[in-house]
Amino acid sequence: MCVAAFQVHAADSGATSGSTPVYLDADRGFEERAADLVSRMTLEEKAAQMQNGAPAIERLGVPAYDWWNEALHGVARAGGATVFPQAIGMAATFDVPLMDRIANAISDEARAKHHAFAARGERGRYQGLTFWSPNINIFRDPRWGRGQETYGEDPYLTARMGVSFVRGLQGDDSTYRKLDATAKHFAVHSGPEADRHHFDARPSTRDLYETYLPAFEALVKEGQVASVMGAYNRVYGESASASRFLLRDILRRDWGFTGYVVSDCWAIVDIWKNHRIVATREEAAALAVKNGTELECGEEYSTLPAAVRQGLISEAEIDDALTRLFAARMRLGMFDPPERVRWARIPASANQSPEHDALARKAAQASLVLLKNDGVLPLSRDVRRIAVVGPTADDPMSLLGNYYGTPAAPVTLLQGIREAVPNAEVVYARGADLVEGRDDPAAAPLIEARYLRPSADSNERGLRGEYFRNRELSGTPALVRVDPQIGFRWDRGSPTDNLMARGEAGPGQGVPNDNFSIRWSGQLLPPVSGRYEIEAAANDGVRVYLDGKLLLDEWKDSDRLRAAHAAVELEAGRAYDLVLEYYEGERDAGVRLAWRLPGAKPPFEEALDAARGADVVVFVGGLTGDVEGEEMTVDYPGFAGGDRTDTRLPATQQQLLEAVHATGKPVVLVLTTGSALAVDWAKDHLPAILVAWYPGQRGGSAVADVLFGDANPAGRLPVTFYKAEEPLPAFDDYAMRGRTYRYFDGEPLYPFGHGLSYTRFDYTDLRLDRGRVGTDGEVKVSLSVGNSGSRAGDEVVQLYLRPVAPARERALKELRGFQRIHLQPGETRTVEFTLRPERDLRHYDEQAKRYAVDPGQYEVQVGASSADIRASERFEVEK
């Protein structure tokens, strides 16, 4: 419904003749307008508007709206969008100004996409302006599968990156917000994934206030974040999505939060069904609203009218909650003429623009962390033969992590290397499955277009695809086209507006996100005679017919991409009729058609042959979002529920890596991952290790830029890399003792903040402007940083504070400042920081129940990592 139609329709229902309803008067305050609109609704209508899928109220002209939208590292699940490095990679940049640019680009695309959807009358999930990002939980344990979504293990780094991200999403307009950002998951939530609907987190009060709350406080007070999302688990016995302590006492009373709270999806169900805090749906819904959760992702709030009738909650309390929600929608300009909202003028061309693609490449370059380099990097462009080996080298999923959009032209690491050295021979061999026991659906090569044709009389290459709006392959297809290859992955999006097959973007023909089907047909043209292995993989059902006979049949639902195989004898020069049928039920989707040709060597031997014949080997391995992520239902050795039970490189890859190293060729290890990997063996045996994280759509280009010296690496670890044999604390224990660089007193494999460069930086002239300061004063810190090497590069100058003789148990040291600076060879720059004891040295006094600053001596440490301290000075905090 357009704004004009909305206003006319609304004016016909509830306004005095000839007047404009208060809620449509754009000159009035948002809260006043929202209260007026809510006052016109029935109780049932109010309850429906407090669920994420809010229906239209035709008599008031209120259009339907779904609050659920995602933008973790780009607009997600809404079709084509620029995909930036996963959040953990953005944190590794240690670059707040760069994060400002990234977040602004994401919000430009979100606005452009929303207005395009609305112009077509589409107001469904993933088409709105309220985004459930960022995830600012503390990545306290490397085993957590969702740690990739966070900004790492440090509260200060998390706060700085989070505030920047919120600032970029919400915009700088004094009247209308650009988007609503959401700080999640408030506040003590970081695994285990398998237990998240059941467990009760009970950290010490000190850990709560010194580790788990500071980033949320910063986003509320500094970032003015519009929304906060509760978590699934309990905290001190209360559901985090219905906690009076968290939501009323801390969030609103102590921090002055004026926005709205949304539950995590189906967390309200957990209150009665899993946590058993109350016995009924009505009691759970009433408890959540009364304790401060205005919006539910789910359907339990449909029971609120019954809860009112049962005396569990008053209608006035519902009115108060709903008024907050409509004020938020009005602040986004949803109820006002577009000409009043500057954000409505962002053109559709902003989405996936060349400028954003270039920014994605820059962000990926900035995120790469060089762990080790014995001089093999950067590689010479004169190298004649490069072997690229490993299971994530040519897998687009290794670029994306989770919660991603669809990139227009994703560049895998293999592709990036090939494009960087067009005159070199680049030989690729996958070599091994990602993990042991996984019938890996990316192991066999896709059947190339040159071996497929849509019909006997066609000169096109590929298969004819018929896309249906149902699971039964019935009716008139919504779209018919020729697809060159069958190799698609969709992240909860329609295959025709959220399509990725080596970067091919679909035209947007309205096939639904779920419950669709596709039939591909044509002819298969084998290049040689012999025994072929045909592979079809799908999530959900797939079947293959060859010359009219059923060859593969996996026509059933699946919660993962599952592969089926068949061996067949084929003759060269003959055309075989080929049909592949596929259906998708719900959630993530994918399908691929692959083969192995006669005489093909086993993948392991193929990889060793490639290594033996190469001048240098680039081994690309690690993890993908297929094995680490959110509440997964399929486990593999070393993984459970999306979390990890073993932080080492998966055994399949370790075996291949050692065999490739044994060929005697220099091996550069590139890791795709969302978390720390215990690569002890690689540190001891390989000359170079580079962490790529999940680097986004231009990840392959960025990795090649660093490998061949076009970009100088300067990313830093936002998490500690522990040794493989390090006995970590129990995963389900939320005490911080022994965790992260702040409390871990052992020797890490690689410390927090670590990252190497192709040049050298010197730190000199560290100065403090005073040696004594009161708790309400400040200390100015300055130092000189110079580039003493031969290459231009970035240095991340890190400042830590260490209590010299602490009066109580507290962190060993804490990051309290960082700056990423660019220096030419021979250039020196003065870097300055300002420290305020009441902000930077506070601890939580459990007896006084407030923050306090201990008098005494503190040490300022400045360096290139938490362990590489180049200079230090002490100062005294007076009583």
Number of helices: 22
Low-confidence stretches: 1-17, 498-508
Q: Based on Cα principal axes, name the global outline.
A: globular
Strand content: 15-25%
How would you characterize this protein structure?
This is Glycoside hydrolase family 3 C-terminal domain-containing protein. With 879 residues, the protein is an alpha+beta fold. The chain is 24% helix and 23% strand. The strands form ten sheets. Strands 12, 13, 14, 16, 18, 19 and 21 form a seven-stranded antiparallel β-sheet that branches. It has a six-stranded mixed β-sheet with strand order 9-27-26-23-10-11, with helices on both faces.
What is the element layout, followed by pairings?
Elements: H1 3-11, H2 30-39, H3 43-49, E1 53-54, E2 65-66, H4 87-92, H5 96-119, H6 155-170, E3 182-186, E4 200-201, H7 205-212, H8 214-221, E5 227-230, E6 234-235, E7 238-239, H9 244-254, E8 260-262, H10 267-273, H11 281-290, H12 304-309, H13 315-331, H14 354-367, E9 369-373, E10 385-389, H15 397-400, H16 413-420, E11 425-429, E12 452-453, E13 463-468, E14 479-483, E15 487-490, E16 516-524, E17 530-539, E18 541-546, E19 549-554, E20 562-570, E21 576-584, E22 589-596, H17 603-612, E23 616-622, E24 639-640, E25 643-644, H18 651-661, E26 667-672, H19 680-685, E27 688-691, H20 699-707, H21 740-743, E28 761-768, E29 772-773, E30 779-787, E31 793-803, E32 814-823, E33 828-835, H22 837-840, E34 843-845, E35 850-852, E36 856-863, E37 869-877
Parallel strand pairs: 3-5, 4-6, 5-8, 10-11, 10-23, 23-26, 26-27, 29-37
Antiparallel strand pairs: 1-2, 6-7, 9-27, 12-16, 13-14, 13-16, 15-22, 16-21, 17-20, 17-22, 18-19, 18-21, 24-25, 28-30, 30-33, 31-32, 31-36, 34-35, 36-37
Helix pairs in contact: 2-13, 3-13, 5-6, 5-14, 6-8, 10-11, 14-20, 16-20
